[in-house]
Design a protein that fits this description.
Helices cover 39% and strands 14% of the residues. It has 9 helices and 7 strands; from the N terminus they run E-H-H-E-H-E-H-E-H-E-H-H-E-E-H-H. A 5-stranded parallel beta sheet has the order 3-4-2-1-5, with helices on both faces. It has a two-stranded antiparallel ribbon with strand order 6-7. Strand 6 and strand 7 form a beta hairpin. Helix 5 packs parallel to helix 7. The longest helix has 19 residues. The mean pLDDT is 91.
C-alpha cells in the first residue's frame, strides 16, 4: 500500500520576489510529488513568465479557480494551482516593491488558511513576503507571524526555526534593533522559553536543553 501523501497549501509570497520561482521549482520536483500534493495559491500568468525567465521546466499541475478547488482535490492527485487572475501580473517588474504584490500575498495567505481550516489541506508553507509591500497595500500586519496569529486567533504566537538538532525561537520580531533592549523583559523571555519547551516536546524532543542567547554576547561570562 502506498503511503498517504500530505497535502500542503503553498502561498506564492511576494509576486516580485523569489517566491514564484521557489514554488515553481517545488511543483517541478520529482521527489516532492512522491510524498506530497501541493496546492499553490498564485497566478498562472506569473508562473509562465517566471518559468520562461528562469529556464524552469514548466511542471505538470492542474489549474483551477478557488470555487472549484474542493472538486479538483477529489478528482486528482496531481499538484494544483489555485489561479487568482489580476491584470498587473502581465507586466510586474521583479525586484521592485508593488502594493498589488502585498495585497495578493496577504490574500493568498488568508485563503490558504481558510482552506486548511475547512479540511482541504494539512499544513501551510509560505514563500517570503515583502513587508513594505504589505504596508503599501494597507494590510495592517508586518509579516506572516502577526497575520497568521490574527487568522487563527492565536493569543500567544512565537516565531521559531526548526532543523534537526536545533530549534530557535525569537524573543522579539520585526523590531528596530534600537527597540530591542527595552522589549526584553523577564516575563517575555519566560514566555518564549515556555513556548520553546512545549514546541520541542511536540516535535518529539522529550528533554530539550534550552539556552538563552544574550543581546550582547560580550556582556560577560555569566
Amino acid at each position: 500500500m502506498s503511503p498517504v501523501r500530505v497535502r500542503l497549501a503553498v502561498t506564492l509570497g511576494d509576486c516580485a520576489g523569489i517566491g514564484p520561482e521557489l514554488v515553481l521549482r517545488a511543483l517541478a520536483s520529482p521527489e516532492l510529488v512522491q510524498t506530497v500534493q501541493l496546492i499553490a495559491y498564485g497566478n498562472a500568468v506569473l508562473f509562465n513568465r517566471v518559468a520562461s525567465a528562469a529556464g524552469i521546466r514548466f511542471p505538470v499541475f492542474r489549474t483551477v479557480r478557488q470555487s472549484d478547488l474542493a472538486d479538483a482535490l477529489s478528482e486528482t492527485s496531481s499538484h494544483i494551482l489555485v489561479d487568482d487572475p489580476f491584470s498587473e501580473a502581465n507586466d510586474l517588474a521583479p525586484g521592485r516593491v508593488h502594493a498589488v504584490c502585498g495585497a495578493k500575498a496577504a490574500a493568498w495567505i488568508r485563503q490558504a488558511v481558510a482552506d486548511i481550516r475547512n479540511g482541504l489541506g494539512d499544513a501551510l508553507v509560505t514563500a517570503p513576503v515583502n513587508k513594505e509591500a504589505l504596508h503599501l497595500a494597507g494590510v495592517g500586519f508586518s509579516g506572516h507571524t502577526e497575520l497568521l496569529a490574527h487568522l487563527t486567533r492565536a493569543t500567544d504566537p512565537c516565531m521559531a526555526f526548526y532543523a534537526d538538532g536545533l530549534f530557535v525561537s525569537l524573543a522579539t520580531i520585526h523590531e528596530a534593533i534600537s527597540n530591542v533592549p527595552r522589549l526584553l523583559t523577564l516575563p517575555g523571555l519566560s514566555r518564549t522559553i515556555r513556548l520553546t519547551h512545549t514546541a520541542c516536546v511536540d516535535f518529539g524532543i522529550e528533554a530539550p536543553r534550552i539556552g538563552v542567547l544574550a543581546l550582547n554576547p560580550h556582556a560577560g561570562e555569566h
